[in-house]
Structure formats: structure tokens, C-alpha cells
Amino acid sequence: MCGIIGYTGPLEAKKLLLEGLAGLEYRGYDSAGVAFFDTDSHIRLIKQVGKVASLKEAMSKIKEDSHCGIGHTRWATHGGVTVENAHPHQAGRVTLIHNGIIENYHQLTEEFCLEGKLKSQTDSEVAAWVLDSLYEGDPLEAIKNLVHRLEGTYGFCILFADRPGEIYAVRKVSPLVAAYTHSGAVIASDLTALIPYTQKYFVVPEQEIVRLTPYKVQTYNLETFEKTSPEIMTVNWNLDAAMKNGFPHFMLKEIHEQPEAMKNTILPRLNRGIPDFSDDRIPDSLFAECSQVHIVACGTAMHAGMVAKAIMEPLLRIPVTVTIASEFRYQDPLVDERTLAIIISQSGETIDTLAAMTLAERLGAKTLAIVNVKGSTIARESQYVLYTHAGPEIAVASTKAYSVQLAALYMVACRMALVRGKYTEEQAKAFFSEFLDVIPAMEEMIERKEEMKRVVTHLINSPDAFFIGRGLDYAFSLEGALKLKEISYIHAEAYAAGELKHGTIALISDQVPVIATATQDVLFSKMISNVREVKARGAFVILLTKEGAEVDENLADVHLTIPAVKDQFTVFPIAVVLQLIAYYASLGKNLDVDQPRNLAKSVTVE
Ligand code: AGP
Questions:
Q1: Which helix (H) or strand (E) holds 428?
Q2: What SS3 state is found at 126?
Q3: Is the model's pLDDT at 243 over the cut of 90?
Q4: CB atoms inside a 10 Å sphere around CB 114
Q5: How far is CA 573 from CA 435, 441, 458, 545, 559, in A?
Q6: What is the pLDDT of residues 339-396, one digit of tens each?
Q7: I need a surface site. Which of 25, 87, 289, 565 has the fewest CB within 10 A?
Q8: For 492-512, what is the mean pLDDT?
Q9: Strands across the sheet with 177-181, in order?
Q10: What sign for the dihedral angle of Cα 486, 488, 489, 492?
């Protein structure tokens, strides 16, 4: 999604804006631009299609200093990838950048007779022209009147031609964080662009306007313009955490960080060997009184929910439903006041997930959010929040966030079993003691990464790949397929192994790669039969089992094993295997591992 950076202060703004945009590249984008006040206090505008590097090249020709400006990386929503559609957009005295979607921009185009003025196909430029039409010298008044006319979502940073050195901002749903630092005033769409300058920041409150000057950051009530004081928060990770630190890619670094992330998420919540959420201010009544659990998320987070369902239902004997957030919103879901809605989101800014949470609450559900980014919108707006402590996840392909989401869900499952009488204290302790075995198992698979590297030679030239499994193995095959397709662009599909012969096996032909996961003892023989079925049709089979599994040596083309943790915990070492297979496949195809095409790290538009 779009990245936003704004700065005003004593430092050289162009350099700082470019550094900020570079820190936001991981969000995914297709063009970039900056606008800044030059030494004559005129606003200069530079926009480029492509990477921040080409914007930097274009800006290197400008020698004069600047101390106030805004920068933007665009992930196209309205209009193609062109220089005209790149931000910032200039409209009369207004220059602005925007993250979000203005839903009534056609109506505004007509109402303000903008047809002849527009240079782009974007909703953002329409907003700029409307603001210019409303501007009569008072930025706060003009912004208030603009907001009253807008429908949709936005995070705006705005320059007014007659206000050199000042930046104005306002948001609705799209994220913005800001700070006044020893280097001046900074605002951005997320913390990665802020942490080089400060550990203290605030989330720009909705329905408030922010004015940044070189000496102060002030927020105002949108309607009354009364000065307000937003809550100051502390960044819970440092700059190193958001850097590669010697790894070739963020994704590989984050795969390696998983054991540490698991410890940071789990250990602070263990009380006499049992998960305890007292410090998270999550009451046991939340788990004891619900009659059903409804998990809502997108992408990898939703796949974590699928694993949770496979664990929770046998344990708790209540319905556990998993719904894709963008579907949940429009389904009229069966949710009531006895529903526990678990909302999973790494970024805490995914708009579909946020909207689904709002709907669940409106239907009476209690909401528990499992979120990695502290202070994010979903974290702030849910009734209860269970933070994971994976640190910043920069690679678009989620890895450590998936593992810690699962860890949080396993802790919730264990706590729920205890408070609902499905587990005695001894049983809960035993469950969790065995659960902790997954951390050394993950460390071992990371150490054995060369085994996964060798596997991909059979994958990277194939247009398709199939991931098959049963029960829990199917639930995490979904994630394996997503990882592979999103960073290697190989069409990958996860399939319940028993379902293959009802159609999809027609696609299995000579050397089609099939990654078969068989870690569940109770389903092992069935899985082996399914492997034989695809093998008989020429598939190239990569079989994943626990070590010690008895497998005919000529059954699979490649047989990878994981440490023999208990069946209900195999997802953790297997996740490392599937992540590394995807990573090395992407590398083998010389693709952009950390910033795959078309994708964004946080999907803040519908
Ligand atoms: C996962 O590799 C993807 N990057 C994507 O599916 C992601 O999990 C999804 O967009 C949800 O994001 P969130 O966890 O930040 O809400």
C-alpha cells in the first residue's frame, strides 16, 4: 500500500524524504514522488514511475537545499502506473499525497467542475482540487470542509503554497503516525520511516488535523480547532530490527528470527507453565462464556486461523469458524453476543479485517485481536488485544508473523481448554511443555536450510505446484501454497489430499511437483495412499514427514523430515520448511524476494 513521509525542520528535507521512502519500499509500490519548498519558498514537484532509486536519480540534479517536504510511494488503485498518476498531486495552491480511496470522487468532479482541470485519473487529484477550491487562507477551515465532503478512506499530507515550512495532515482509516524530534517534525504512514529519528510517537487521531512546523507538532479537533494532546507511545523495536543486518533479504532474516519471536511472544505469558493473559488484560470470562469462536483475517493470517480451527475444535468441542475478512463483511454472518471473534492481523491495518471486526462488534461479538504492530488501528479498536512480539516484519511474504500468530492461537486454545474444564492444570502444563519443543525444532530446520535449497531445482521450471495434506497438514499446506506463489509466481494450490481424486488429479501429469505433508500419525497411511496415486500419474513428489516415519525409499522423489514433535505441533517446523522452499524458489528465479510484484505489505484499501 501507499507509503507517506513528511518532514519539516532544520535538516535537508530532500535527503530525509528519500531515506523515508526507501524505508517504506517494503509496503509495495509502483511509482514515487516528492514535493518540497525550495529556497524561494516555491513548491517543487518531482515524480517518477518505478523505484525510489530512479526518483533519487532525478532529484540528484537539484542542488538547492529544502527544509520542508512530503514524499509518497504509490500502489495504484485508481488509474494506471504513470507519472501523471503518481503523487504528490498539485492543484492550485494545494499539493498533497494520499493513501486510501475516495469513493465519491466522480460526484466531486462534477460538483466542482473539475473535468477540464484534471491531469491524472486519480481520486487523489480530485481531492486536491476540491481542497484548493475550499481554501481561503485558513488551512484548518479548508481541511474541515474537505473532510465533510469526502466519502471513503484517506491519509493526507498537504502543503499550502502560502504556508512555507508547514505540513498539514488528516486521516480516516488509513494509518498516519507523527512525532516532534530533535531533528524536526516527522509524519509517516508507518513507524519504519519514523524510527531513525525517534522512539516516541503518536498515532494521528481520526477526526483531528495535524499541523507540523519546524518547531512544533500540534493536533486540533477537526470541528472546533481546539488543541488536543494525543497519547505519546514508545516504539517497541529499534532501527536494527528493521534492517537486514547482513542477511541477503528481509525474508531470510525474518525466517531466522522465528525462534526468538516465538520466545518473545510466549515466555512472558507463561505462569507456572500455563498461558496466562492477565498482563494483557484479557479476562478468562472471555474464553469461558462464549458458545462459538469466529476467526476473521486475510491471507497468511487467515491460514493461521485454519490451523487454529483444526486444533481448537477437537479440544474445545465448540464451533470454530474461519472466514476471509473480505467475505465476512458482506455475508450477514452468524455472530451474536456469545461469539468470540478472533481478529488476526500482522499489520493491524488491513482494511477488510478492520471492517470485519467492526461488523462483528456491531453484531454483539467480543473481539480479541492478535496483532504484531503496537498501536495499530485494529489493536486500538478491538475490545481485547494479544500482541505478538515478532518485531517489524518487512518482507511482504509473512513468515515470523505467521509463526507467532499460531503461537498466540495455541496459547489461547490451551487457556480456553483450562477455563472451560477441558484441561486440568496438569494437562494444560503437559500440553504447553510439549508445545515448547517446537522452538528447537524450528531452529534445527533453519540450520538444515540447504536441504530445502536443493529441493527447489525441481520446482522453479514448473508452472504449477500442488500442496496436499490431510487435517492439520492440509491447514498449513494452504500457507505453503501462498508462500510459493506470492514470491516465485509459480501457480500453487493447496488441496485436501482425499479430495484430489474428485477432479484435481486430472492436473497431475509427468513431473508436476506435489509437496505432500504427512505428519499426522492417524492419517499417515491414507496420505501415503494419496502419494502413491499422484506418483502413479508421474508427479514429482516432495514428501514431508516426521523423522522416523516408515516410508518406502522409492515412494517419493525427495523425502524431507522434521524433528518428531507431537502431531498437533508439527505446523511450526513444517512452516519453516515451506517458507524456505518458497524463498529459494524465488531466489532461483532471480525474483524480488522481499517486494514481489503487485503485492503490498499492508492492504489498507479494499
Ligand atoms: C502473506 O505472505 C501476505 N503478505 C498477505 O497474505 C498478508 O498475510 C495479508 O495481507 C494479511 O495481512 P495482515 O496480517 O497485516 O492483516
A1: helix 425-435
A2: helix
A3: no
A4: 18
A5: 12, 6, 22, 11, 15
A6: 999 999 999 999 999 999 999 999 999 999 999 998 888 999 999 999 999 998 989 9
A7: 289
A8: 93
A9: 43-49, 31-37, 68-74, 3-8, 184-188, 177-181, 200-203, 233-234
A10: negative
Query: Residue 101 in contact with residue 78, Cβ under 8 Å?
Result: yes
Helix (H, G, I), strand (E, B) or coil at 271: strand
Q: For 136-154, write each residue's pLDDT tens digit.
A: 999 999 999 999 999 999 9
How many whole angstroms separate alpha carbon 59 and alpha carbon 14?
Answer: 8
Ligand 1 binding pocket mutation candidate from 300, 306, 592 (most atoms within 8 A of CB)? 300
Query: Can you tell me the mean pLDDT for 584-600?
Result: 89
Residue 590: left (phi > 0), alpha (psi -120 to 50), or beta?
A: left
From the CA of 303, give the closest atom in ligand 1: 8
DSSP H or E run through 188: strand 184-188
Q: How far is CA 19 from the centre of its chain?
A: 22
Task: Please state, in angstroms and rounded to a whole number, the distance separating the CA atoms of residues 343 and 232.
Answer: 25
Report how far residue 365's alpha carbon sits from residue 120's, in angstroms, rounded to the nearest whole number. Answer: 43
Percent of the chain past pLDDT 70, that is, above it, reads 99
Q: Is 347 in the pocket of ligand 1 (CB under 6 A)?
A: yes
Edge-to-edge strand list for the sheet holding 491-496: 491-496, 464-469, 513-518, 540-546, 558-562
Residue 207 has a pLDDT of 87
- Could you confirm whether 2 is annotated as catalytic? yes
Q: Is the pLDDT of residue 525 over 80?
A: yes
Report the alpha-carbon distance of residue 58 to residue 473 in Å, rounded: 50
Residue 284 CA to residue 144 CA, distance in Å, equals: 43
pLDDT at 451: 95
* Distance, CA of 125 to CA of 389 (rounded, Å): 39
Q: Is 143 in the pocket of ligand 1 (CB under 6 A)?
A: no
Residue 344 CA, ligand 1 centroid: distance in Å: 10
Residue 88, preceding bond cis, omega within 30 degrees? yes
**C-beta 153 within 6 A of ligand 1:** no
The pLDDT of residue 239 is: 64
What residue owns the CA closest to ligand 1's atom 5?
A: 299
How many residues are present in the chain? 606
For residue 104, name the pLDDT band (cuts at 50, 70, 90): very high
Q: What confidence score (pLDDT) does residue 79 get?
A: 79
